[in-house]
Design goal:
3-stranded parallel beta sheet; 301 residues; TIM Barrel
Amino acid sequence: MTYLTAAELPLESAGERFRALVEQGGIARLPGAHNGMAALQAKAAGFKGLYLSGAAMTASMGIPDLGIITVDEVAVFIRQIVRAAGLPLLVDGDTGYGEALNVMHMVRTFEDAGAGAVHLEDQLLPKKCGHLNDKKLADARDMAAKVAAAATARRHLYIVARTDAAASEGLDGAVARARLYMEAGADAIFPEALTTAEMFREFAARMPGVPLLANMTEFGRTPFFTASEFEDMGYRMVIWPVSSLRVANKAQEKLYAALARDGSTQAMLAEMQTRAELYRTIGLDQYEALDASIVATVLPK
C-alpha cells in the first residue's frame, strides 16, 4: 500500500527497526539510495535497510562532498526516501554540522524526518570523502563529546561513530579512537578507508562484541569484498554508498549524448524504464484505488 495509509505504517520507531536489523544476525546490507525512486527499487530487490550518503546527496545537487550542505537540506532527502520505501535508513551525518549543540540539533532533526541511524565522523571541516588524501582529524576527545551529545539528544536513533584515523594514525590510533567513542555512547563503529582484508580482520579482532560497519565504495582505497566476506571478517553492516548514483549518472550521460547527437531519444528506448514500469514502481494504481475508495463521485441531482 501507500505511505498515506496509517494502518500500513510500522508501530516501532525507525531507530528500533534499524537496531533490530543489525542485531538479527548475519550482516545488514545497506545499499545507497540517493532519492525516493532508488529507495523503491532497492526495496523491490529485497533489501531491508538503506543508506543515504553525503557524497551522493551533494553530487545529485551538483556540488562536491565538502560538508557545505545544511541539516535541513539533508532532512529533505531523508523524508523523501523514508516516505517512498519505509525502510530503516542510516544517514551520513558528516561532522555533525558544528559542535555539540549542533550535533544535538542534527539528531533531533534527523529523527523527526524519519531516520533510523546516523554516523558521525572525526574529521575537521572542510571534510573530505574518506578515501581521499590529506584528511584532517578532530581531537579524539572533541569527537567523543559529539558522540555523547548525540546519545543525549536521541530517542531511538542508532549512533555509528566513524573514524578516519587509520590513514594518519594507523590501526592503533583508529582502535583507540573507536574505544573512546564507544565509551561516549556510540552503538557501532565505522572504520573508514581500510585498505586490506588483514586490516579489516585485525580491527574487528581488537573490537570484540562491537557492531562494525564496512564501506564498500567503488574507486576507493578498499579492495572489492562481498557482503559475505565482510561478515566473515567480523562486520555487521556494509554500505555501498554512491553505487546507485554512479549508475544513474552514467545512464543520463549516455542519454544526453544521444539526444545531442541525434536530436531524438529513440536510440535509448531499450535502456529506459517504460511508463508501465515506472507506474508499477511508484504504485500509481494503489494511490488511485485509495483515492477512489475514499472520495466517491456524487452526481448532482
